[in-house]
Amino acid sequence: MRSHTHFASFAELAAHLDKLGMFRMRPELGKLREVLGRLALPKPLAVAQVAGTNGKGSTATFLAALAQAHGLRTGLFTSPHFVSFRERIRINGVPVSEAAILAPANAVMAAGGETLTYFEFVTALAAYIFSAGISASVADPLAPAESLAPVDVAVMETGLGGAWDAVTALPADALAYTPIGLDHCRVLGDTVTAIATDKAGAIRGGKPVFSAAQPAEALAALKSIAAERGSPFFLAGERESLPDPIRDGAIPLGLAGEHQYTNAGLALAVWRHLARENGWDVSEEKESRALATAFIPGRLQYVPASEAHGHPALLLDGAHNGHGMAALGKNLAAKGVAPAAVIFACLEDKNPAEMAAHLRVLATGPVFVPPIQGNPRALEPEQLARAIGLAAVPATSMADALARAREHVAAYMPVEAAAHPERHPVLICGSLYMLGDFFALRPDCLEPPTQKDCKP
């Protein structure tokens, strides 16, 4: 493989990815497999793939936290990102630096990376970094020496579907399925059976499959293909399987919401399997600590009011389909949260009518509808506001929506919002891509509060 510098700077790499377009996908993995074959990457000790419809990012985050808490160097690949694509590739919870990512990116290009789609390229980049490490010549000079090493455990979140998702081109020792529902219907099919069958295409022959509770049609599809491929199948995700302090609520999960107990239980089942297979010691105390400190932005994430940034108290959630919106509603009701207002936007292929129906239950106050910047799949604010009805108002940007929400809270709920901001926040939901517009304004909120407090 010849050596060549395709990217002299991170800006050049980012420009190349922008040119590819984030939403292009093709139903074959041949080009990616060719590139991976040329790279000839060694496999980490353990690789787990996380697929499903809702909860993939949370489950992957819990699983990575469990491995890291036991002293294993852990790579985590998730999507989408909020501000920089480097967020997709983390080692021990830290995104790979701009300086460190260049040599791996050039190696992927030298192996034929110019033929890859956006997601294929970033997947190959993550695989290279996790498997081969980072060259000392381009690594962040302030990074510790151990940051140059390959990882012990790689946790890879599926992007879309399963059969033709780029992550499926990589080897995997275990596969986890979060709850499956209707989503990406134009690509995967318009029934739960069709969608589950596509996602089941990720099952590797002989490798175990762990699944959360599923609709009957999805469970049948997963079990059928697992049986065809000789892959042991296990149901997982029960709250009863969690360490006692987590299960009983004495120690809260790091990610809020009742549904997160399912995600945590699923991650725990996969972790314990990988530990058994590799002879790693397991500690319930370390498991509890990992589950209690796991963090991923935009999952029922509370952000205090900020005079400096000009917004009231906020609650951010990545609910982006009917299933997610229903779970969000249940969690708000269980916690007695009544949003003072909602900032909402969604993509046109996410069944806006169904999402609007859930939103009408959540929103007792106004709904401000901003555009999603730079996303061709986003519904126009005026069109979405008409579909929502109620007191939905188009906004010109996320900053405009935040300003309008602040004015509403100050005018109509000053006492309640001041006395109980956590019970009457402004809810931001509907799209992870829209949350990216918020995080562009508050990038400090991308980090765990214990590390980089998202404060007023």
Report the helical percentage: 40-55%
Q: Beta-strand level of the residues, as a percent range? A: 5-15%
CATH class of the largest domain: Alpha Beta
Computed over alpha carbons, the radius of gyration is 22 Å
Note the overall shape: globular
Question: Cα distance, first to last residue?
Answer: 51 Å
How many separate domains?
A: 2
CATH architecture of the largest domain: 3-Layer(aba) Sandwich
Return residue spans where pLDDT drops below 50 for at least 5 consecutive residues.
Answer: 136-146
What does the model show?
This protein is 40% helix and 11% strand. It has 456 residues and is an alpha/beta fold. The chain has 2 domains: 10-293, UDP-N-acetylmuramoyl-L-alanine:D-glutamate ligase (3-Layer(aba) Sandwich), CATH 3.40.1190.10; 301-446, Mur ligase, C-terminal domain (Protein-Tyrosine Phosphatase, Chain A, Alpha-Beta Complex). Strands 4-3-2-5-1-6-7-8 form an 8-stranded mixed β-sheet, with helices on both faces. Helix 2 packs parallel to helix 5 (118-132) and helix 3 packs across helix 10. The termini are far apart. The model is unreliable at 136-146 (pLDDT under 50).
Task: Summarize it.
The protein has 456 residues and is α/β, with parallel strands linked by helices.
Labels describing this entry:
Protein-Tyrosine Phosphatase, Chain A, UDP-N-acetylmuramoyl-L-alanine:D-glutamate ligase, 456 residues, 8-stranded mixed sheet, 6-stranded mixed sheet, 14 strands, alpha/beta
